[in-house]
Amino acid sequence: MAMKVKLAKSFFDITREEYLAPGHTACPACGALLTARLVLKAAGPDVIVVNPTGCLEVTTTIYPYTAWGVPYIHVAFENAGAVASGIEAAIKSLNKNGSLKRNTKVLVIAGDGGTYDIGLQALSGMLERGHGVLYVLYDNEAYMNTGIQRSGGTPKFARTTTMPAGTVIRGKIEKKKDIMSIVMAHHIPYAATANVAFPIDLVNKVRKALSYLNEGPAFIHVLAPCPPGWGFSDEKMIEIARLATETGYFPLYEWDRDRLIINPPSDMYMDKRLRKSLREFVKAQSRWSHVTDEEIKGLEKDIDDFLNYLWRLSMGSGVPTPYA
Amino acid sequence: MSLTVIKSRIGREIIRDRVAITSNYAAAYAAKDAEVDVVAAYPITPQTPAVEKMAEFIANGELSAEYIPVESEHSALSALIGASAAGARVFTATSSQGLLYMFELLYIASGLRLPIVMGLATRAVSAPISIHGDYQDFAATRDSGWVIMIASSAQEVYDSIIMAYRIAEDNRVLLPVMVSYDGFLMSHTTEPVELYDADTIRGFAPKRLNRPILDSSKPITMGAMAVPEWYYEIKYQLIEAMHNSMGVIREVHDAFNRTFSRNYRLVEGYMLDDADYAVIAYGGIWGNVKRAVNEARKRGIKAGALRLRLFRPFPTDELIEMISDMKTVAVIDRAVSPGAAIEGPVAMEVATALHSRGLSTPVVSVVHGLGQRTVYSRDVAKLIKIINDSQPWDLTKSTMYMGVREYGNEG
Ligand SMILES: Cc1ncc(C[n+]2csc(CCOP(=O)(O)OP(=O)(O)O)c2C)c(N)n1
């Protein structure tokens, strides 16, 4: 089990301190910014943040301003895992020879492109070598910074500028890459999914992840909707994010030292009858406006398959899920 | 691998040991003696033994550093950027495709003004694949904002890397430094090297001077996004730092020569005083060039030679001082810029340097030794003879490709 960590029960257990200033240029209701803000509330202030190229970087670091109240570095798009490895090694080395006396935590906050695609090699290297770094993936399911192009995290049928919904091709052809399984296959101490619509769960997962860093890396995959990219109005952000979990589209679970635990409320949605209709989630976003009912059925089938896979993993882990 | 310890010739106290090692090992010894904090390593021929030696030092506790056996060169330099940004003294080495795979990060390392030091065992670049030594990889780094040194002996590799830390970490500079040496010809050739006393090195290149780093008690943002209103000025600061580095490099050379009883200069001349022609070269072929000059002198041709120890910043003043009286200069490059007016990369620099000082000395661009085609001293002697026998401006019109077989004439 994890070290004793103080888990938040309500918003009152989360600091009022802000480490990401409101003076940034992100769109209203940006899921990436909300992710970063919550992660820092859970982790700050003794942290160093590594952020690959993407929306988060370009909206928070426009010289001569910065929104970051903690040390921050952006190097390139594909190397956050490697940069973080170097910082973690430097902290270790400087502590060992006595020139540093603090155990500063290293955090990566990276987009889906910087994680699923171009950054995958550096992430894998970091995980394999066991650097004590918390890698947070904010997943807005496309390359938003360059104007909504397909990434390995883009779901099937979603329309992007590089996989438009045409008369022959129906948006993205392939399924979303299962990044969590890739990460779990590195057998790191802790990995989890989270959703900006469930902030207390997110904050607690960050706290838990940090408690594992003396043993190795931790990874948190956060669903971070993007209003312009997904095509919905700003005020719907949390509602849509919540629907993603309530429909089983984005289940919440943890990989805790080789055991898979499906977290509430997703444990309840293992029962298909309790899930909300996927149609509600899909039809609320213009990236899927071309999708037919038949295609939604196909998407639903994929969700069933994936939840079954998770379920089997959790059973195999010997952790009974309360709802069947 | 055990080292052959040769008894020191000179009993100077600053010499700890006199050992027989390759330039790769000399690079590793220098990084160890500079007490680096973080090493990132990825193998590529002919550099591999350098990082293997670092790994061995760390594995045996001879160096207390964090060792990151990364999954690529891209990550090697990325990790060092992170480590250096966090305040560590860092080292890696690479060659050829490895350097090209780092290319994006070369600019980021200098742009973030990080005092990273890297060894480069120079090598040909694919395709066709060649693991052998030339300077094509090195030539590609010209505009990356790194200080680039070129050594021509294992001792010089060791000495230059120690100097490199002091240059890189100087607050007037804060730029990464690359120390290059010939793949195979130097990287795999054993030479005697004098290693210095640790306290003397520590005094010469002290660690952790005051520079901006990632520190949670004083948060800063590194690698910010610059709009057109700011990018140019920030880039200009890097250019200024490169200019400033010239003075610092001279200072560091003087200090090094004083501390370690050496005689390094940015540009080294050989029999130039009364020479009509100068052959300019760099790296490991220096010995052959000097020999060719001796040969030419025997035949009554007043030739001299000159070796560059620095590529960036380009030592224009030192160079001009030594060649301004020459009738003709020839530059031997082991890299090429296909399609350029002068196809040898360093020849271009020399021509530009002369022109910038109002001189119109003819510059003959000679390319030789690509993919480690052997450069014989007789080739250089022949070059000197050609220059002596020709109208110089006839030779400057096109680049001379020495040692290349012509098509249909392979026999
Ligand atoms: C090597 C390289 N290729 C392409 C780019 C252009 N680029 C910058 S950000 C980006 C997409 C970022 O997408 P993601 O990681 O999903 O983050 P988001 O913008 O969605 O927050 C791309 C393609 C780059 N910076 N570097």
From TrEMBL, chain A:
<dbReference type="InterPro" id="IPR029061">
    <property type="entry name" value="THDP-binding"/>
</dbReference>
<dbReference type="InterPro" id="IPR011766">
    <property type="entry name" value="TPP_enzyme_TPP-bd"/>
</dbReference>
<feature type="domain" description="Thiamine pyrophosphate enzyme TPP-binding">
    <location>
        <begin position="53"/>
        <end position="222"/>
    </location>
</feature>
<protein>
    <recommendedName>
        <fullName>2-oxoacid oxidoreductase (ferredoxin)</fullName>
        <ecNumber>1.2.7.11</ecNumber>
    </recommendedName>
</protein>
<dbReference type="GO" id="GO:0030976">
    <property type="term" value="F:thiamine pyrophosphate binding"/>
</dbReference>
<dbReference type="InterPro" id="IPR051479">
    <property type="entry name" value="PorB-like"/>
</dbReference>
<dbReference type="Pfam" id="PF02775">
    <property type="entry name" value="TPP_enzyme_C"/>
</dbReference>
<dbReference type="GO" id="GO:0018491">
    <property type="term" value="F:2-oxobutyrate synthase activity"/>
</dbReference>
<dbReference type="GO" id="GO:0019164">
    <property type="term" value="F:pyruvate synthase activity"/>
</dbReference>
<keyword id="KW-0560">Oxidoreductase</keyword>
<comment type="subunit">
    <text>Heterodimer composed of an alpha and a beta subunit.</text>
</comment>
UniProtKB/TrEMBL annotation, chain B:
<dbReference type="GO" id="GO:0018491">
    <property type="term" value="F:2-oxobutyrate synthase activity"/>
</dbReference>
<protein>
    <recommendedName>
        <fullName>2-oxoacid oxidoreductase (ferredoxin)</fullName>
        <ecNumber>1.2.7.11</ecNumber>
    </recommendedName>
</protein>
<feature type="domain" description="Pyruvate flavodoxin/ferredoxin oxidoreductase pyrimidine binding">
    <location>
        <begin position="30"/>
        <end position="252"/>
    </location>
</feature>
<dbReference type="InterPro" id="IPR033412">
    <property type="entry name" value="PFOR_II"/>
</dbReference>
<dbReference type="InterPro" id="IPR029061">
    <property type="entry name" value="THDP-binding"/>
</dbReference>
<dbReference type="GO" id="GO:0019164">
    <property type="term" value="F:pyruvate synthase activity"/>
</dbReference>
<comment type="subunit">
    <text>Heterodimer composed of an alpha and a beta subunit.</text>
</comment>
<dbReference type="InterPro" id="IPR009014">
    <property type="entry name" value="Transketo_C/PFOR_II"/>
</dbReference>
<comment type="subunit">
    <text>Heterotetramer of one alpha, one beta, one delta and one gamma chain.</text>
</comment>
<feature type="domain" description="Pyruvate:ferredoxin oxidoreductase core">
    <location>
        <begin position="275"/>
        <end position="380"/>
    </location>
</feature>
<dbReference type="Pfam" id="PF17147">
    <property type="entry name" value="PFOR_II"/>
</dbReference>
<dbReference type="Pfam" id="PF01855">
    <property type="entry name" value="POR_N"/>
</dbReference>
<dbReference type="GO" id="GO:0006979">
    <property type="term" value="P:response to oxidative stress"/>
</dbReference>
<dbReference type="InterPro" id="IPR002880">
    <property type="entry name" value="Pyrv_Fd/Flavodoxin_OxRdtase_N"/>
</dbReference>
<keyword id="KW-0560">Oxidoreductase</keyword>
<dbReference type="InterPro" id="IPR050722">
    <property type="entry name" value="Pyruvate:ferred/Flavod_OxRd"/>
</dbReference>
